[in-house]
Design brief:
The complex is a heterodimer.
Chain A: H1 21-35, E1 42-46, E2 61-64, H2 70-80, E3 85-91, H3 92-97, H4 99-108, E4 113-118, E5 121-122, E6 128-129, H5 153-159, E7 164-169, H6 175-184, E8 189-194, H7 201-205, H8 209-217, E9 222-226, H9 232-240, E10 254-255, E11 266-273, H10 278-291, E12 295-301, E13 310-318, E14 332-335, H11 338-350, E15 356-359, E16 371-374, H12 385-397, H13 402-411, H14 415-427
Parallel strand pairs in A: 1-2, 1-3, 3-4, 4-8, 7-8, 11-14, 14-15, 15-16
Antiparallel strand pairs in A: 5-6, 7-9, 11-13, 12-13
Helix pairs in contact in A: 1-6, 10-12, 10-13, 12-14, 13-14
Chain B: H1 10-17, E1 20-24, H2 26-36, E2 41-44, H3 51-63, E3 67-70, H4 74-85, E4 91-95, H5 97-112, E5 117-123, H6 142-145, E6 154-156, H7 161-178, E7 181-187, H8 188-192, E8 195-198, E9 240-242, H9 256-271, E10 280-283, E11 290-294, H10 298-311, E12 316-321, E13 323-325, H11 329-335, E14 341-346, H12 352-360, E15 365-369, H13 378-385
Parallel strand pairs in B: 2-3, 2-4, 4-5, 5-7, 6-7, 11-12, 11-14, 14-15
Antiparallel strand pairs in B: 1-8, 6-13, 10-12
Helix pairs in contact in B: 2-3, 2-7, 4-5, 10-13
The chains are: A alpha/beta, B alpha/beta.
């Protein structure tokens, strides 16, 4: 138990006469004293505006960042050291520009406490309207009255899962108790604390303590939500406990166990449809080339759509590494789908007579100067066609031993299906 | 690298008869580099062509005992990284050009608050949505000048997957040493094209972790080029962090001499160490009056073009710049000795050529640019050489 009588430092508050911010910070100080927190294990994260000055008056850790982003910094801090007590202080302005962060923090139930000093306008920059300015209220940017509905901060974070939500004013007797409850709550906690901006909002809208409390009385106020939740950083650690130290499968080893007679660069291009396993089949070819002592790369071309449109994979292989560069016309082109043909028409016309086009029967009439081989595959599933046709091309061209391709299939995902596809390709006639 | 049939000396036979290789893209190499560097915090938001890094980090970082999270947007992602870094994590984020736009204000915060942070930029063709799945090098100025104020950052540019691995490690080392954002500026082709690598070339260890400060002022401005270690939240005494002009204690100030000392320090800590931050690959041919200056993915084509030109009997040198910012001026000046003509191929309107031209002292700089989303062919550079 740390017996500290005050968490305030010697700096006097900078707030205007009559501003409620100082009393809210006094309540926070009282709550910290009650909780007897270690100041070195407590972080105050301040937003921007008058509320953003708050961290400078406390002897705890302090983080003062960008407007609206305070919750994101608090989240990073809490995720790294979940035992820290993290308190965010923001104004109503921060709930507008940083609204998405509040929503996400509530949905995650990241275990931080947010104090909103809500005085219905931007007090530091000249009294402009904010997300919480009441309809009809006069501000420097709504001289004829605000036309926007005010944001219900509490309702918004409440319906999105926040663990603890309170709405009140800086005059509330129980404010210290509510702060203690909020800070003690394991999940995301938010206190929407209404107070008076005597520099601007009070002057333009005849706001008094009585009218503030009357307005509050027309809304649901007090503790609006207090529920058991799973705090995000704790959940994250629980879910990933089993991952810790797990061997990485990021970079599978490929041992060179075969040999290839290929003595020059060879570009094998597969032109098919997105979603038809063109990339994964080409990847197996590239791996098999490496297994055979060659250097391979695989440039893929595809649209932003996923299972529609073309998918072109260029596997460039040879006895030495090649730089990433436009590879020119392919030495062999495997035509798998109309989408691929459409995209490959330019390279098709550039192909030399010494090169080869492997065409599925539907493309038997395609015009090319290259040697054309129509590949008659046995009846196989659509998903197997790309790999089967590529296996057929590899065997026909004699690029490397087909056993290397089988070995790549064995060591990868969907081994049985891929091995069957390879055998179908090897059994094909062209 | 020699293929297996050229196994020569008996001592190498066992190593070369069963070479151990892998088929990986630059993104994978970056993730491996981050993991061996002790990266224990990652936050990112999906964007082509950087999503591969996000997805791999979501698997690799928890296994390494850290936290990886998908933010609600790019702003949240870099914000979480900044909070994490100031709590003692080794933090990294990854995005593409549109995401760098959204990072901008927080990049400034990381500069001002002296946050060690690694930012991966997988460039795609811009502007705006541009070509999400097409290559470009259009962010080379953006990463340097993308935050208000004009204060320096460090930016590295890998030419291939091995560079991705090695320069990611270097990025973590320098982010911590100089306490500033360090960018790794790569692109769609390097990041997403699987290539063959020797596993042995991915064996380096990452930099050791500097000792944290635990007490005293969190910042030090004098002498200007000196950088004090990070004092994380929760370790030792309470500590202050701010994005406003501040004194060495982290309290906001407008005291002119203090602000001058702070901002002078932010410049000097990079500028005074500029020669320590130079990474170039100078392939000089004696007597050559032409030099190709390249960086990133375009360096591959440049190297091949230079090799072809030499085979054809032309004298030509190559300078590959791997540390874009600060501009490696000393290395560039050394390489320019005797050179009368410079060729700069790049996948943008000719941006970095301006920096080369600034250092080149009136020598003609030929810009070879390509901005249609395809790579520059070696033949294009070869033709420009002679």
């Amino acid at each position: 138990m740390i017996g500290i009588s005050s968490y305030r430092n010697e700096n006097p508050y900078p707030f205007c006469p009559g501003c409620g911010h100082g009393s809210i910070l006094d309540s926070l100080n009282a709550a910290l004293v009650r909780l007897a927190l270690d100041p070195a294990r407590t972080v105050i994260v301040s937003d921007i505006g008058c509320s953003g000055l708050s961290d400078q008056y406390f002897s705890t850790n302090a983080f003062h960042g960008l407007h609206g982003r305070s919750v994101t910094y608090a989240t990073g801090i809490k995720l790294v050291d979940p035992e820290l007590t993290v308190i965010v202080i923001m104004g109503d302005g921060g709930t507008g520009i940083g609204g998405t962060h509040l929503l996400s923090a509530a949905r995650r139930n990241i275990g931080v406490t947010v104090l909103v000093m809500n005085n219905f306008n931007f007090g530091m920059t000249g009294g402009q309207h904010s997300t919480t300015t009441p309809e009809g209220a006069v501000t420097s940017t709504t001289p004829d009255g605000n036309l926007e509905h005010p944001l219900d901060i509490c309702g918004t974070v409440g319906v999105n899962g926040a663990g603890y939500v309170y709405r009140g004013t800086n005059f509330d007797d129980g404010l210290v108790d509510r702060m203690v409850e909020a800070i003690s709550h394991p999940g995301f906690a938010l206190l929407d604390i209404w107070d008076m901006c005597t520099a601007y909002f009070v002057r333009s809208n005849k706001l008094t303590r009585r009218s503030l409390e009357t307005a509050m009385g027309e809304l649901e106020s007090g503790v609006l939500f207090s529920r058991d939740v799973s705090e995000y950083s704790a959940s994250y650690r629980a879910v990933h406990a089993a991952d810790r130290g797990r061997a990485s499968g990021l970079i599978p080893e490929i041992r060179v166990a075969f040999a290839s007679g290929l003595d020059r660069r060879f570009l094998l291009t597969a032109a098919g449809a997105a979603g038809a396993r063109v990339k994964s089949a080409s990847r197996l070819v590239g791996e098999a080339a490496i297994r055979s002592g060659l250097w391979a790369s695989q440039r893929d071309d595809y649209p932003v759509t996923v299972k529609t449109g073309h998918s072109i994979s260029q596997v460039l292989m040879g006895p030495a590494p090649s730089p990433l560069a436009p590879a020119g016309a392919p030495d062999a082109l495997v035509l798998l789908a109309p989408e691929g043909l459409e995209k490959a028409r330019r390279v098709l016309s550039a192909m030399e007579p010494g090169s080869t086009v492997f065409a599925l029967p539907e493309f038997r009439d395609v015009e090319t100067r290259a040697r054309k081989q129509v590949v008659e595959l046995p009846r196989i599933s659509k998903a197997a066609v790309s790999l089967a046709a590529l296996a057929h091309a590899v065997q026909t061209l004699g690029l490397f031993p087909v056993e290397a391709l089988r070995e790549s299939a064995r060591q990868g995902p969907f081994a049985d299906a891929n091995l069957s596809a390879i055998e179908a390709g090897l059994a094909a006639v062209s | 690298m020699a293929p297996i049939r050229s196994a020569a000396s008996p001592s190498r036979i066992s190593a070369v008869t069963t070479p151990s290789r892998a088929f990986i893209d630059g993104s994978t190499a970056i993730v491996r580099g981050a993991v061996v560097s002790g990266c224990d915090f990652f936050a990112g938001y999906p964007i082509t062509p950087a999503s591969g890094i996000l997805m791999s980090m979501m698997r690799e970082i928890p296994a390494a005992g850290g936290v990886a999270i998908q933010g609600e947007d790019e702003i949240a992602s870099i914000g979480m990284c900044i909070g994490a870094a100031m709590t003692g994590a080794r933090a990294m984020t990854a995005t593409s050009g549109p995401g760098i736009s959204l990072y901008s204000e927080n990049i400034g915060l990381a500069v001002m608050g002296e946050v060690p942070l690694v930012i991966i930029d997988v460039q795609r063709l811009g502007p705006a949505t541009g070509g999400a799945t097409t290559v470009a090098q259009g962010d080379v100025m953006f990463v340097r000048w993308g935050a208000s104020g004009g204060f320096p950052v460090i930016a590295l540019a890998p030419t291939d997957a091995i560079d991705c691995f090695e320069l990611t490690i270097r990025a973590f080392e320098w982010a911590e040493k100089y306490r500033c954002p360090v960018f790794l500026v790569t692109d769609k082709e390097v990041a997403t094209t699987p290539v063959t690598v020797e596993l042995a070339s991915l064996a380096s260890n990452g930099p050791g972790r500097q000792e944290f400060a635990t007490t005293g002022n969190p910042y030090r401005f004098e002498p200007p080029g000196r950088v004090s270690p990070v004092h994380p939240f929760g370790i030792g005494d309470p500590v202050r962090f701010t994005g406003s002009t501040h004194d060495e204690g982290g309290f906001i100030t407008k005291h002119l001499p203090t602000v001058a000392a702070l901002n002078t320090h932010l410049v000097a800590k990079v500028a005074d160490h500029a020669t320590d931050l130079e990474i170039v690959d100078h392939d000089e041919q004696s007597g050559s009056k032409t030099m190709v200056v390249s960086y990133g993915v375009t360096a591959g084509a440049a190297r091949q073009a230079v090799a072809e030109a030499r085979n054809d009997g032309y004298a030509v040198s190559s300078l590959v710049i791997k540390s874009l910012w600060p501009v490696p001026e000393a290395a560039l000046r050394r390489a320019l000795a005797g050179v009368e003509r410079i060729i700069v191929p790049e996948l943008n309107p000719g941006l970095y050529a301006n920096e080369v031209e600034r250092v080149a002292g009136g020598r003609p700089v030929i810009r070879l640019t390509r901005i249609d989303g395809e790579l520059i062919a070696p033949a294009t550079i070869r033709e420009a050489i002679a």
